[in-house]
Amino acid sequence: MLVDDESGSSTDSENEYKEPWDPYSNYPVSLPLRPVGSGNPEVLNVEEFGKHDEYDETKINSALELGLSGPGDGDQKQLIFFQFPEHLPLDQVPDSSKGKETAGSSTNASNKRVGLKDLPNGHIGKMLVYKSGAIKLKLGDIIFDVSSGTPCGSAQSAAMMDMKSKDCCVLGKVNKRAVVTPDLNSMLDKINQL
Fold first, then answer.
1. What is the 3-state secondary structure (H, E, C) of the chain?
2. 92-96, 138-142, 145-149: which range is least confident on average?
3. pTM score, two decimals?
């Protein structure tokens, strides 16, 4: 413990935070923006933002957030906007004939990228809602994770446009958003099986 001669108060040199760079040189900008010498950023972050838990995807209940399970399950109709990646990691395009999920016309993923435009109209896959609240989407042999997206901040409606007849039909108000991403664990398991 050190005693300051001028004020007579004691200071603990171990508790003082020392900036890792010279504040009078070109030091990096860090967010949130604070004045130089304001203190230890870790302590200030806890004081300002509170303690945060590490992200754990097993604690997320996407089915409850999207209204697919829980109280009032299926009581009212809702429109969910699904956001897919631009290119899907599909080796084969699913065939929608007779409502069955079968692998149809064979396309090589290295030769052609498969997008939503390449998928057939109608039934193309199956949505799996687990008791834990996890949601998976199976398109062909590939499994995708479905998670709740950002909430709609303003009124949004989904519409269908027929470019040939120049008609537009409003389907309804978008209640929820869902983000669809490839399930990397299942893809890696498939590669390991080969």
1. CEECCCCCCEECCCCCCCCCCCCCCCCCCCCCCCCCCCCCHHHHHHHHHCCCCCCCHHHCCHHHHCCCCCCCCCCCCCEEEEECCCCECCCEEEECHHHCCEEEEECCCCCCCECHHHCCCCCCEEEEECCCCCEEEEECCEEEEEEECCCCCCCCEEEEEECCCCEEEEEEEEEEEEEEEECHHHHHHHHHHC
2. 92-96
3. 0.59
